[in-house]
Each structure stands twice: as structure tokens, then as C-alpha cells.
Design goal:
The protein is an alpha/beta fold. Helix content is 44%, strand content 15%. It has a single domain, classed as NAD(P)-binding Rossmann-like Domain (Rossmann fold, 3-Layer(aba) Sandwich).
């Protein structure tokens, strides 16, 4: 029986793989993304799905997206905040080289964007006296930096903000049966990692650094973890940062 509704921000990579797995598991999916072609193509191959075009860093756009989801499906049970960007092309790098533009952009998309979506979901659930679950996305780089190839300090900082906000909120909303967790992947084969995928030196590094995969993690592997944390199978878990990094953090 189709029952639960999951709102997912993003329309490619991990977001798309999670949407596909969720629908296969019997959930309905509402996709919130910036690129209409990606959103429409994703939903065209998924039953029980719909989409809304929005930039997660736009507060009003996120409010409108949640209203559209509730209008379309009449309910909301889970939110997966996975939309993200790389700030390298905007000047992200070591602190002494990082541009103000990159810092603000990454904070707007990752920290503020996650905040806007969490706030809308929680407001709805509190008003409806309904339980719910939020899964936010961080990165292994938030706690396990790598200075040679991935010295993007604004990116790491924005993901760290997501983690601390999530843990604080998990404590506050647990009595309301609203759960919040964080998924912190390693390097995944997505459009955002295209630069790394074509760099032979990084390929050799990742083969060593992520030994469980001997290279890049596939989006479907991350989607499987996300699907569990969004599902009723994980009802005893809140306030956790779950790494899915193929061994990155424990490999020298």
C-alpha cells in the first residue's frame, strides 16, 4: 500500500537514487530541485511522484515547495535534505585563499537551505501533532579533512553547521517523536564529483582512501543507507551522524 510521503531536495546523484529506491519501497516522493529538466525526467520514470522547482537557499521558495507537496499528496512523513553544491568554482579552498563569495554561497545552500527545509517540516508536524523524520546531509570532510585534494574549508564548515543544528534539534524535538539524523558520505560518483572522477591522481587516492569500494561510492549505496534512516525501521535512532564513507575515516 502506498502511504508515506518523502520530500527530497535535489534531483540527481544521491537524491535521484534515493527517490527511486523510496518509490520502489512503496513510498510517494516529492522532489524539490533547481533544474526542471532533471526533475521532470526523474519523476517521469517514477510512479507516485511529483516535483517543484525551487532553490533551497530561497526561504520563500522552500515555503512554497512544502505547500505544493502538501497540496499534491495531503501529507508529509519524511524529508531528505541532500541538495548541495561544490564551491570550488566560486573560490572555495584553504581559508587564506577562500573567497567571501564561496563562503556565503555554501552557507546559503547547505546551512541555510537545510535550516529552511527543517523548519517548514517541523512547523507542519507540530501543527498536525504528527511524528516525522528528517535526514540531513553532511560529508566525511566535516570531521576527517584531507588537505592534498579536498582543502575546501567553506564546504567543510557549511556541513559542520548542518551537523550541529541537527543534533541540537534532535534533542529538542524527540519528545514530539520528530527524529533528525545526519548522513555523512565519502566521495560519491555524482555530478558534483565530476572533477575528481576525471583526475587520475585523485582516482588513485580514492582507491586507497575508500578501500571498501576501491574507489568512488555509487549513489545507490548511499541511497540504501538513507532509505533505512528515513524509514520506520529506524524509529529508535535520532541525533546520530552516520558515516557512509567506504572506510575513508579509518584509512590513513
Amino acid at each position: 500500500m502506498v502511504d508515506r510521503v518523502i520530500l527530497i531536495t535535489g534531483s540527481s546523484g544521491i537524491a535521484a537514487a534515493t527517490a527511486e529506491l523510496a518509490v520502489h519501497s512503496g513510498d510517494r516522493v516529492f522532489v524539490v530541485g533547481k533544474i526542471e529538466k532533471e526533475c521532470s525526467e526523474l519523476c517521469a520514470r517514477l510512479d507516485h511522484s511529483a516535483f517543484h522547482i525551487a532553490d533551497v537557499s530561497d526561504e520563500q521558495a522552500i515555503e512554497d515547495a512544502f505547500a505544493a507537496c502538501l497540496s499534491q499528496f495531503g501529507r508529509l512523513d519524511a524529508v531528505f535534505n541532500v541538495a548541495g553544491i561544490s564551491g570550488r568554482s566560486f573560490g572555495d579552498g584553504p581559508l587564506h585563499e577562500c573567497t567571501t563569495e564561496a563562503w556565503r554561497l555554501l552557507m546559503d545552500v547547505h546551512a541555510a537551505g537545510t535550516f529552511f527545509a527543517c523548519r517548514e517540516a517541523i512547523r507542519h508536524w507540530l501543527s498536525a501533532k504528527q511524528e516525522g523524520v528528517i535526514l540531513n546531509t553532511s560529508s566525511v570532510l566535516a570531521h576527517h579533512p584531507e588537505s592534498a585534494h579536498f582543502a575546501t574549508h567553506a564546504y567543510a564548515a557549511s556541513k559542520g553547521a548542518v551537523e550541529t543544528m541537527t543534533i541540537a534539534a534532535a534533542s529538542y524535538y524527540a519528545p514530539h517523536r520528530i527524529r533528525l539524523n545526519v548522513l555523512a558520505p565519502g566521495l560519491v560518483r555524482t555530478p558534483m564529483s565530476a572533477r575528481a572522477q576525471t583526475n587520475p591522481e585523485i582516482q588513485r587516492f580514492i582507491h586507497h582512501k575508500q578501500p571498501l569500494q576501491r574507489g568512488f561510492i555509487e549513489p545507490g549505496d548511499i541511497a540504501a543507507v538513507a532509505n533505512f534512516l528515513l524509514s520506520n525501521a529506524s524509529t529508535a535512532i535520532t541525533g546520530e551522524i552516520v558515516r557512509a564513507d567506504a572506510g575513508w575515516a579509518v584509512t590513513g
